User: Which sequence fits this backbone?
Protein backbone atom coordinates (compact mmCIF):
# COMPACT_ATOMS: atom_id res chain seq x y z
CA UNK A 1 0.00 0.00 0.00
CA UNK A 2 1.32 3.47 -0.81
CA UNK A 3 2.82 5.40 2.09
CA UNK A 4 0.77 8.12 3.72
CA UNK A 5 3.84 10.35 3.76
CA UNK A 6 5.04 12.41 0.80
CA UNK A 7 8.36 14.11 1.40
CA UNK A 8 10.73 16.33 -0.45
CA UNK A 9 14.00 17.41 1.13
CA UNK A 10 16.54 19.59 -0.62
CA UNK A 11 19.87 20.88 0.58
CA UNK A 12 21.43 24.21 -0.33
CA UNK A 13 24.71 24.84 1.40
CA UNK A 14 24.20 24.10 5.06
CA UNK A 15 20.43 24.46 5.02
CA UNK A 16 18.09 21.58 4.27
CA UNK A 17 14.47 22.43 3.50
CA UNK A 18 11.90 19.72 4.11
CA UNK A 19 8.30 19.63 2.86
CA UNK A 20 5.90 16.90 3.87
CA UNK A 21 2.31 16.11 3.03
CA UNK A 22 0.71 13.41 5.16
CA UNK A 23 -2.55 11.67 4.37
CA UNK A 24 -4.51 11.41 7.59
CA UNK A 25 -8.15 12.18 8.47
CA UNK A 26 -7.24 14.19 11.60
CA UNK A 27 -10.78 13.74 12.94
CA UNK A 28 -11.48 15.97 15.93
CA UNK A 29 -14.12 13.75 17.48
CA UNK A 30 -16.58 16.66 17.35
CA UNK A 31 -18.07 16.04 13.92
CA UNK A 32 -21.20 13.95 13.35
CA UNK A 33 -21.67 11.63 10.42
CA UNK A 34 -24.78 11.45 8.21
CA UNK A 35 -26.48 9.18 10.76
CA UNK A 36 -25.98 11.78 13.48
CA UNK A 37 -23.29 9.85 15.33
CA UNK A 38 -19.98 11.34 16.38
CA UNK A 39 -17.01 10.37 14.26
CA UNK A 40 -14.42 9.33 16.86
CA UNK A 41 -11.27 11.39 17.22
CA UNK A 42 -8.47 10.06 15.05
CA UNK A 43 -5.41 12.26 14.87
CA UNK A 44 -1.62 12.17 14.69
CA UNK A 45 -0.15 12.56 18.16
CA UNK A 46 3.50 12.67 17.29
CA UNK A 47 5.37 13.43 14.10
CA UNK A 48 9.11 12.96 14.07
CA UNK A 49 11.87 13.74 11.59
CA UNK A 50 15.25 12.10 12.23
CA UNK A 51 18.49 12.64 10.43
CA UNK A 52 21.64 10.71 11.19
CA UNK A 53 20.00 9.22 14.28
CA UNK A 54 19.15 12.64 15.73
CA UNK A 55 15.70 14.21 16.02
CA UNK A 56 15.60 17.34 13.88
CA UNK A 57 11.88 18.09 14.19
CA UNK A 58 9.36 16.66 16.61
CA UNK A 59 5.73 17.76 16.73
CA UNK A 60 3.19 16.88 19.41
CA UNK A 61 -0.18 17.33 17.81
CA UNK A 62 -3.80 17.38 18.87
CA UNK A 63 -7.12 17.77 17.15
CA UNK A 64 -6.49 21.34 16.04
CA UNK A 65 -4.40 20.24 13.06
CA UNK A 66 -6.44 19.83 9.89
CA UNK A 67 -6.91 16.86 7.64
CA UNK A 68 -3.97 15.90 5.40
CA UNK A 69 -1.43 18.05 7.24
CA UNK A 70 1.37 19.79 5.41
CA UNK A 71 4.63 20.64 7.18
CA UNK A 72 7.54 22.71 5.93
CA UNK A 73 10.69 23.48 7.88
CA UNK A 74 14.44 23.93 7.50
CA UNK A 75 17.35 22.61 9.53
CA UNK A 76 21.13 22.79 9.52
CA UNK A 77 23.81 20.17 9.58
CA UNK A 78 22.77 17.76 6.84
CA UNK A 79 23.90 17.40 3.25
CA UNK A 80 22.90 15.87 -0.08
CA UNK A 81 22.59 12.12 0.12
CA UNK A 82 21.88 11.97 3.83
CA UNK A 83 18.89 9.98 4.93
CA UNK A 84 15.83 11.56 6.54
CA UNK A 85 13.45 9.33 8.45
CA UNK A 86 9.87 10.52 8.97
CA UNK A 87 7.45 8.73 11.25
CA UNK A 88 4.15 9.41 12.92
CA UNK A 89 1.93 7.73 15.51
CA UNK A 90 -1.72 8.45 16.17
CA UNK A 91 -4.19 8.10 19.01
CA UNK A 92 -5.58 4.83 17.68
CA UNK A 93 -2.22 3.13 17.65
CA UNK A 94 -1.73 3.71 13.95
CA UNK A 95 1.65 4.70 12.56
CA UNK A 96 3.66 5.06 9.39
CA UNK A 97 7.24 5.69 8.52
CA UNK A 98 9.27 6.50 5.46
CA UNK A 99 12.91 7.21 4.69
CA UNK A 100 13.94 9.66 2.02
CA UNK A 101 17.25 10.83 0.68
CA UNK A 102 18.04 14.52 0.85
CA UNK A 103 18.42 15.80 -2.68
CA UNK B 1 -36.97 55.34 33.91
CA UNK B 2 -39.70 57.88 33.49
CA UNK B 3 -41.78 57.28 30.39
CA UNK B 4 -43.99 59.84 28.75
CA UNK B 5 -47.55 58.68 28.23
CA UNK B 6 -47.15 58.58 24.46
CA UNK B 7 -43.99 56.53 24.63
CA UNK B 8 -45.54 54.19 27.16
CA UNK B 9 -48.55 53.63 24.89
CA UNK B 10 -46.28 52.95 21.93
CA UNK B 11 -44.29 50.50 23.98
CA UNK B 12 -47.44 48.77 25.23
CA UNK B 13 -48.85 48.45 21.74
CA UNK B 14 -45.69 46.99 20.32
CA UNK B 15 -45.23 44.55 23.16
CA UNK B 16 -48.83 43.51 23.60
CA UNK B 17 -49.92 40.27 22.01
CA UNK B 18 -52.68 40.40 19.41
CA UNK B 19 -56.14 41.16 20.68
CA UNK B 20 -57.15 37.48 20.55
CA UNK B 21 -54.83 34.45 20.68
CA UNK B 22 -54.20 32.69 17.35
CA UNK B 23 -56.19 29.51 16.95
CA UNK B 24 -55.40 26.31 15.15
CA UNK B 25 -57.78 27.43 12.40
CA UNK B 26 -55.78 30.64 11.99
CA UNK B 27 -52.61 28.59 11.72
CA UNK B 28 -54.08 26.19 9.17
CA UNK B 29 -55.21 29.07 6.98
CA UNK B 30 -51.87 30.85 7.24
CA UNK B 31 -49.93 27.66 6.58
CA UNK B 32 -52.05 26.77 3.56
CA UNK B 33 -51.43 30.20 2.05
CA UNK B 34 -47.71 29.96 2.75
CA UNK B 35 -47.47 26.46 1.36
CA UNK B 36 -49.25 27.47 -1.83
CA UNK B 37 -46.88 30.36 -2.41
CA UNK B 38 -43.91 28.16 -1.56
CA UNK B 39 -45.02 25.54 -4.08
CA UNK B 40 -45.37 28.21 -6.73
CA UNK B 41 -41.84 29.42 -6.05
CA UNK B 42 -40.52 25.85 -6.19
CA UNK B 43 -42.34 25.34 -9.48
CA UNK B 44 -40.47 28.35 -10.86
CA UNK B 45 -37.21 26.73 -9.66
CA UNK B 46 -36.58 29.77 -7.50
CA UNK B 47 -37.17 28.53 -3.96
CA UNK B 48 -35.37 30.22 -1.08
CA UNK B 49 -33.85 28.20 1.76
CA UNK B 50 -35.33 30.62 4.30
CA UNK B 51 -38.84 30.01 2.96
CA UNK B 52 -38.45 26.30 3.54
CA UNK B 53 -37.12 26.80 7.07
CA UNK B 54 -39.83 29.30 7.98
CA UNK B 55 -42.50 26.83 6.88
CA UNK B 56 -40.82 24.10 8.91
CA UNK B 57 -40.66 26.41 11.93
CA UNK B 58 -44.37 27.14 11.56
CA UNK B 59 -45.19 23.46 11.56
CA UNK B 60 -42.94 22.79 14.52
CA UNK B 61 -44.54 25.58 16.54
CA UNK B 62 -48.03 24.33 15.68
CA UNK B 63 -47.11 20.78 16.65
CA UNK B 64 -46.02 22.19 20.00
CA UNK B 65 -49.32 24.01 20.39
CA UNK B 66 -47.89 27.53 20.00
CA UNK B 67 -50.26 28.78 17.33
CA UNK B 68 -49.25 32.40 17.80
CA UNK B 69 -45.69 31.67 16.79
CA UNK B 70 -46.87 29.22 14.14
CA UNK B 71 -49.03 31.86 12.47
CA UNK B 72 -46.21 34.39 12.58
CA UNK B 73 -43.78 31.92 11.00
CA UNK B 74 -46.31 30.91 8.36
CA UNK B 75 -46.90 34.56 7.46
CA UNK B 76 -43.15 35.09 7.18
CA UNK B 77 -42.84 32.02 4.97
CA UNK B 78 -45.61 33.34 2.73
CA UNK B 79 -43.93 36.74 2.47
CA UNK B 80 -40.58 35.12 1.64
CA UNK B 81 -42.16 32.85 -0.94
CA UNK B 82 -43.92 35.80 -2.57
CA UNK B 83 -40.67 37.75 -2.62
CA UNK B 84 -38.93 34.86 -4.35
CA UNK B 85 -41.72 34.73 -6.94
CA UNK B 86 -41.36 38.47 -7.50
CA UNK B 87 -37.62 37.96 -7.90
CA UNK B 88 -38.09 35.21 -10.48
CA UNK B 89 -40.54 37.29 -12.49
CA UNK B 90 -38.56 40.52 -12.42
CA UNK B 91 -35.25 38.79 -13.13
CA UNK B 92 -36.68 37.49 -16.40
CA UNK B 93 -35.82 40.89 -17.85
CA UNK B 94 -33.62 42.42 -15.17
CA UNK B 95 -30.73 39.99 -15.77
CA UNK B 96 -29.92 41.73 -19.03
CA UNK B 97 -28.83 44.83 -17.14
CA UNK B 98 -25.94 42.87 -15.63
CA UNK B 99 -24.78 41.29 -18.88
CA UNK B 100 -21.33 42.13 -20.17
CA UNK B 101 -21.78 43.28 -23.75
CA UNK C 1 -28.30 68.70 -56.20
CA UNK C 2 -31.62 69.80 -55.02
CA UNK C 3 -34.18 67.23 -56.05
CA UNK C 4 -37.45 67.10 -54.30
CA UNK C 5 -38.49 63.53 -53.80
CA UNK C 6 -42.07 62.79 -52.98
CA UNK C 7 -42.37 59.47 -51.24
CA UNK C 8 -45.83 58.44 -50.21
CA UNK C 9 -45.91 58.01 -46.44
CA UNK C 10 -47.35 54.50 -46.51
CA UNK C 11 -44.63 53.12 -48.72
CA UNK C 12 -42.01 54.89 -46.63
CA UNK C 13 -43.30 53.23 -43.51
CA UNK C 14 -43.47 49.91 -45.36
CA UNK C 15 -39.90 50.37 -46.52
CA UNK C 16 -38.68 51.17 -43.00
CA UNK C 17 -40.46 48.17 -41.55
CA UNK C 18 -38.97 45.96 -44.23
CA UNK C 19 -35.56 47.41 -43.43
CA UNK C 20 -36.01 46.79 -39.72
CA UNK C 21 -37.00 43.19 -40.26
CA UNK C 22 -34.16 42.34 -42.56
CA UNK C 23 -31.37 44.55 -41.27
CA UNK C 24 -28.94 42.49 -39.20
CA UNK C 25 -27.93 45.46 -37.08
CA UNK C 26 -31.42 46.11 -35.81
CA UNK C 27 -31.96 42.48 -34.83
CA UNK C 28 -28.45 42.02 -33.41
CA UNK C 29 -29.44 43.09 -29.93
CA UNK C 30 -31.71 40.06 -29.59
CA UNK C 31 -29.71 37.58 -31.67
CA UNK C 32 -27.49 35.20 -29.75
CA UNK C 33 -23.86 35.81 -30.72
CA UNK C 34 -21.54 33.71 -28.56
CA UNK C 35 -18.45 34.86 -30.44
CA UNK C 36 -19.18 38.49 -29.65
CA UNK C 37 -20.15 37.58 -26.08
CA UNK C 38 -16.87 35.79 -25.47
CA UNK C 39 -14.84 38.65 -26.90
CA UNK C 40 -16.73 41.19 -24.76
CA UNK C 41 -16.46 38.95 -21.68
CA UNK C 42 -12.72 38.50 -22.01
CA UNK C 43 -12.08 42.15 -22.84
CA UNK C 44 -14.06 43.23 -19.80
CA UNK C 45 -11.71 41.31 -17.49
CA UNK C 46 -8.53 42.06 -19.42
CA UNK C 47 -9.29 45.76 -19.14
CA UNK C 48 -10.39 45.59 -15.52
CA UNK C 49 -7.14 43.87 -14.54
CA UNK C 50 -4.51 45.05 -17.03
CA UNK C 51 -1.65 43.73 -14.88
CA UNK C 52 -2.91 40.15 -14.88
CA UNK C 53 -1.57 37.97 -17.69
CA UNK C 54 -4.40 36.52 -19.75
CA UNK C 55 -3.57 32.94 -18.88
CA UNK C 56 -3.35 33.80 -15.18
CA UNK C 57 -7.08 34.41 -14.86
CA UNK C 58 -7.58 30.66 -14.51
CA UNK C 59 -5.96 30.86 -11.08
CA UNK C 60 -8.91 32.70 -9.62
CA UNK C 61 -8.25 34.63 -6.43
CA UNK C 62 -4.50 34.00 -6.75
CA UNK C 63 -4.41 36.18 -9.81
CA UNK C 64 -6.08 38.98 -7.88
CA UNK C 65 -3.78 39.27 -4.91
CA UNK C 66 0.06 39.25 -4.80
CA UNK C 67 0.35 37.80 -1.30
CA UNK C 68 -2.09 35.00 -2.06
CA UNK C 69 -0.25 34.29 -5.31
CA UNK C 70 3.00 33.77 -3.43
CA UNK C 71 1.33 31.38 -1.00
CA UNK C 72 -0.29 29.51 -3.85
CA UNK C 73 3.01 29.09 -5.70
CA UNK C 74 4.50 27.55 -2.57
CA UNK C 75 1.44 25.35 -2.25
CA UNK C 76 1.82 24.13 -5.83
CA UNK C 77 5.19 22.61 -4.89
CA UNK C 78 3.28 20.17 -2.73
CA UNK C 79 -0.33 20.47 -3.74
CA UNK C 80 -3.10 19.34 -1.38
CA UNK C 81 -4.95 17.70 -4.30
CA UNK C 82 -2.19 15.11 -4.75
CA UNK C 83 -4.05 12.38 -2.91
CA UNK C 84 -7.26 12.90 -4.86
CA UNK C 85 -5.27 12.98 -8.09
CA UNK C 86 -3.58 9.67 -7.33
CA UNK C 87 -6.86 8.12 -6.30
CA UNK C 88 -8.39 9.38 -9.54
CA UNK C 89 -5.62 7.88 -11.64
CA UNK C 90 -6.10 4.53 -9.98
CA UNK C 91 -9.88 4.68 -10.35
CA UNK C 92 -9.55 5.61 -14.00
CA UNK C 93 -7.42 2.62 -14.84
CA UNK C 94 -9.33 0.07 -12.75
CA UNK C 95 -11.65 -1.99 -14.98
CA UNK C 96 -15.38 -2.25 -14.31
CA UNK C 97 -16.85 -5.58 -13.31
CA UNK C 98 -17.47 -6.32 -16.98
CA UNK C 99 -13.82 -5.84 -17.86
CA UNK C 100 -14.15 -2.52 -19.69
CA UNK C 101 -12.61 0.76 -18.51
CA UNK C 102 -13.39 4.48 -18.68
CA UNK C 103 -11.01 4.67 -21.63
CA UNK C 104 -13.53 2.72 -23.69
CA UNK C 105 -16.15 5.48 -23.28
CA UNK C 106 -14.06 8.47 -24.29
CA UNK C 107 -12.16 9.75 -27.31
CA UNK C 108 -8.41 9.25 -27.04
CA UNK C 109 -9.00 6.85 -24.15
CA UNK C 110 -10.11 9.78 -21.99
CA UNK C 111 -6.63 11.29 -21.87
CA UNK C 112 -6.16 14.96 -22.65
CA UNK C 113 -9.80 15.62 -23.57
CA UNK C 114 -11.14 17.60 -20.60
CA UNK C 115 -10.85 20.91 -22.49
CA UNK C 116 -13.59 19.77 -24.88
CA UNK C 117 -16.20 19.51 -22.12
CA UNK C 118 -19.00 20.42 -21.89
CA UNK C 119 -20.14 19.73 -25.43
CA UNK C 120 -23.56 19.91 -27.04
CA UNK C 121 -24.95 16.54 -28.06
CA UNK C 122 -27.02 17.17 -31.17
CA UNK C 123 -28.60 13.73 -31.01
CA UNK C 124 -29.88 14.25 -27.50
CA UNK C 125 -30.33 18.00 -27.85
CA UNK C 126 -28.60 18.69 -24.53
CA UNK C 127 -25.32 19.79 -23.00
CA UNK C 128 -23.12 16.95 -21.80
CA UNK C 129 -20.63 17.74 -19.03
CA UNK C 130 -17.60 15.65 -18.12
CA UNK C 131 -19.17 14.55 -14.83
CA UNK C 132 -22.33 13.47 -16.62
CA UNK C 133 -20.34 11.60 -19.26
CA UNK C 134 -18.38 9.75 -16.57
CA UNK C 135 -21.51 8.59 -14.78
CA UNK C 136 -23.13 7.55 -18.07
CA UNK C 137 -20.00 5.54 -18.77
CA UNK C 138 -20.40 3.82 -15.42
CA UNK C 139 -24.06 3.07 -15.95
CA UNK C 140 -23.49 1.83 -19.49
CA UNK C 141 -21.06 -0.67 -18.02
CA UNK C 142 -23.29 -1.91 -15.22
CA UNK C 143 -21.82 0.21 -12.43
CA UNK C 144 -23.74 2.44 -10.03
CA UNK C 145 -23.29 6.16 -10.74
CA UNK C 146 -21.22 8.27 -8.35
CA UNK C 147 -22.66 11.17 -6.41
CA UNK C 148 -21.83 14.37 -8.27
CA UNK C 149 -20.83 16.12 -5.10
CA UNK C 150 -18.64 13.55 -3.36
CA UNK C 151 -15.00 12.45 -3.46
CA UNK C 152 -15.04 9.77 -6.16
CA UNK C 153 -16.31 12.04 -8.92
CA UNK C 154 -13.91 14.72 -7.74
CA UNK C 155 -10.96 12.33 -7.90
CA UNK C 156 -11.90 11.07 -11.37
CA UNK C 157 -12.35 14.54 -12.84
CA UNK C 158 -9.13 15.65 -11.10
CA UNK C 159 -7.18 13.02 -13.01
CA UNK C 160 -8.83 13.82 -16.32
CA UNK C 161 -8.23 17.55 -15.82
CA UNK C 162 -4.60 16.83 -14.99
CA UNK C 163 -4.07 15.03 -18.30
CA UNK C 164 -5.27 18.21 -20.03
CA UNK C 165 -3.19 20.68 -18.06
CA UNK C 166 -1.99 23.51 -20.23
CA UNK C 167 -4.35 22.68 -23.08
CA UNK C 168 -6.60 25.56 -24.06
CA UNK C 169 -10.32 25.48 -23.31
CA UNK C 170 -12.00 24.55 -26.59
CA UNK C 171 -15.78 24.51 -26.30
CA UNK C 172 -17.80 24.27 -29.47
CA UNK C 173 -21.30 25.57 -30.14
CA UNK C 174 -22.61 23.72 -33.21
CA UNK C 175 -24.83 25.45 -35.72
CA UNK C 176 -27.94 24.18 -33.97
CA UNK C 177 -30.62 26.46 -32.50
CA UNK C 178 -30.89 24.16 -29.47
CA UNK C 179 -27.18 24.59 -28.75
CA UNK C 180 -27.54 28.35 -28.96
CA UNK C 181 -30.57 28.14 -26.71
CA UNK C 182 -28.61 26.11 -24.14
CA UNK C 183 -25.75 28.61 -24.29
CA UNK C 184 -28.18 31.51 -23.87
CA UNK C 185 -29.93 29.70 -21.03
CA UNK C 186 -26.60 29.32 -19.27
CA UNK C 187 -25.80 32.96 -19.81
CA UNK C 188 -29.15 33.98 -18.42
CA UNK C 189 -28.67 31.76 -15.38
CA UNK C 190 -25.28 33.32 -14.74
CA UNK C 191 -26.64 36.86 -14.65
CA UNK C 192 -29.96 36.14 -12.87
CA UNK C 193 -30.24 37.10 -9.23
CA UNK C 194 -31.41 34.38 -6.91
CA UNK C 195 -31.81 33.50 -3.26
CA UNK C 196 -32.83 35.73 -0.41
CA UNK C 197 -29.50 37.49 -0.77
CA UNK C 198 -30.46 38.40 -4.32
CA UNK C 199 -27.02 37.62 -5.76
CA UNK C 200 -26.37 36.43 -9.25
CA UNK C 201 -23.13 34.67 -10.14
CA UNK C 202 -22.21 37.99 -11.73
CA UNK C 203 -22.76 39.93 -8.49
CA UNK C 204 -19.61 38.35 -7.07
CA UNK C 205 -17.61 37.24 -10.07
CA UNK C 206 -18.22 40.10 -12.50
CA UNK C 207 -18.91 43.05 -10.24
CA UNK C 208 -16.52 42.24 -7.42
CA UNK C 209 -13.56 40.04 -8.40
CA UNK C 210 -10.51 40.75 -6.27
CA UNK C 211 -12.70 42.15 -3.52
CA UNK C 212 -13.73 40.28 -0.43
CA UNK C 213 -16.85 38.51 0.66
CA UNK C 214 -16.30 38.00 4.35
CA UNK C 215 -12.76 36.60 4.49
CA UNK C 216 -12.59 35.26 0.93
CA UNK C 217 -11.11 37.01 -2.06
CA UNK C 218 -13.47 36.66 -5.01
CA UNK C 219 -12.34 35.06 -8.25
CA UNK C 220 -13.06 36.60 -11.65
CA UNK C 221 -15.66 34.75 -13.71
CA UNK C 222 -13.22 34.51 -16.60
CA UNK C 223 -11.62 31.08 -16.48
CA UNK C 224 -13.36 30.18 -13.27
CA UNK C 225 -14.02 26.59 -14.36
CA UNK C 226 -10.57 26.02 -15.87
CA UNK C 227 -9.16 24.94 -12.51
CA UNK C 228 -11.96 22.52 -11.63
CA UNK C 229 -12.17 20.27 -9.74
CA UNK C 230 -10.64 22.07 -6.79
CA UNK C 231 -9.22 21.13 -3.41
CA UNK C 232 -10.84 23.70 -1.16
CA UNK C 233 -9.33 24.27 2.24
CA UNK C 234 -12.81 25.25 3.37
CA UNK C 235 -14.01 21.77 2.44
CA UNK C 236 -10.82 20.03 3.63
CA UNK C 237 -11.14 18.12 0.42
CA UNK C 238 -11.73 17.93 -3.27
CA UNK C 239 -14.94 19.20 -4.85
CA UNK C 240 -16.53 18.99 -8.26
CA UNK C 241 -18.10 21.71 -10.38
CA UNK C 242 -21.48 20.32 -9.33
CA UNK C 243 -20.59 20.74 -5.70
CA UNK C 244 -19.55 24.33 -6.22
CA UNK C 245 -22.74 25.26 -8.08
CA UNK C 246 -24.88 23.66 -5.39
CA UNK C 247 -23.04 25.35 -2.51
CA UNK C 248 -22.97 28.75 -4.26
CA UNK C 249 -26.75 28.52 -4.56
CA UNK C 250 -27.31 27.68 -0.92
CA UNK C 251 -24.87 30.39 0.13
CA UNK C 252 -27.16 33.00 -1.43
CA UNK C 253 -30.03 31.24 0.35
CA UNK C 254 -31.45 29.76 -2.82
CA UNK C 255 -32.54 26.15 -2.68
CA UNK C 256 -30.07 24.40 -5.01
CA UNK C 257 -31.21 22.48 -8.04
CA UNK C 258 -30.28 18.82 -8.50
CA UNK C 259 -26.63 18.35 -9.52
CA UNK C 260 -26.39 18.24 -13.32
CA UNK C 261 -29.79 19.94 -13.68
CA UNK C 262 -30.25 21.52 -17.10
CA UNK C 263 -29.52 25.00 -15.75
CA UNK C 264 -26.24 23.88 -14.20
CA UNK C 265 -25.15 22.08 -17.35
CA UNK C 266 -26.03 25.14 -19.41
CA UNK C 267 -24.20 27.59 -17.15
CA UNK C 268 -21.15 25.32 -17.25
CA UNK C 269 -21.44 25.40 -21.05
CA UNK C 270 -21.64 29.21 -21.10
CA UNK C 271 -18.80 29.79 -18.62
CA UNK C 272 -16.53 27.32 -20.33
CA UNK C 273 -17.21 28.76 -23.79
CA UNK C 274 -16.40 32.35 -22.81
CA UNK C 275 -13.12 31.08 -21.39
CA UNK C 276 -12.08 29.51 -24.73
CA UNK C 277 -8.41 30.05 -25.35
CA UNK C 278 -7.48 30.06 -21.67
CA UNK C 279 -5.51 27.05 -20.36
CA UNK C 280 -6.84 24.21 -18.26
CA UNK C 281 -5.18 24.50 -14.85
CA UNK C 282 -7.03 21.72 -13.03
CA UNK C 283 -7.02 20.16 -10.62
CA UNK C 284 -6.78 23.31 -8.55
CA UNK C 285 -6.47 24.40 -4.96
CA UNK C 286 -8.43 27.20 -3.40
CA UNK C 287 -8.74 28.71 0.11
Assistant:
Amino acid sequence: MASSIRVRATSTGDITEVQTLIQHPMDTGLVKDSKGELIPAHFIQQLKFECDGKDVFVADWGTAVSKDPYVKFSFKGAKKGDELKISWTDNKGGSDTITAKIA
Amino acid sequence: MKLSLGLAMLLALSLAPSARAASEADYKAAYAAAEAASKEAAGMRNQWTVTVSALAAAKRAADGGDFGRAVAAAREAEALAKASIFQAVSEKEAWKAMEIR
Amino acid sequence: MNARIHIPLASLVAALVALALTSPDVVAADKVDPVADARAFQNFFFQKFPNVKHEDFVNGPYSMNEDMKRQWQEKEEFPPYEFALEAGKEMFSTPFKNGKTYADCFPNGGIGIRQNYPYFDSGEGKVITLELALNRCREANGEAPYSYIKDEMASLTAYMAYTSRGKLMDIKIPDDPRALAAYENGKRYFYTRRGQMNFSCASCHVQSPGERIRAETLAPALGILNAMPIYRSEWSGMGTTSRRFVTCNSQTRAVPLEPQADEYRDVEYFLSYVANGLPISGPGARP
DSSP finds four helices and no strands in chain B. The mean pLDDT of chain B is 88. Residues 21-94 of chain B form one domain.
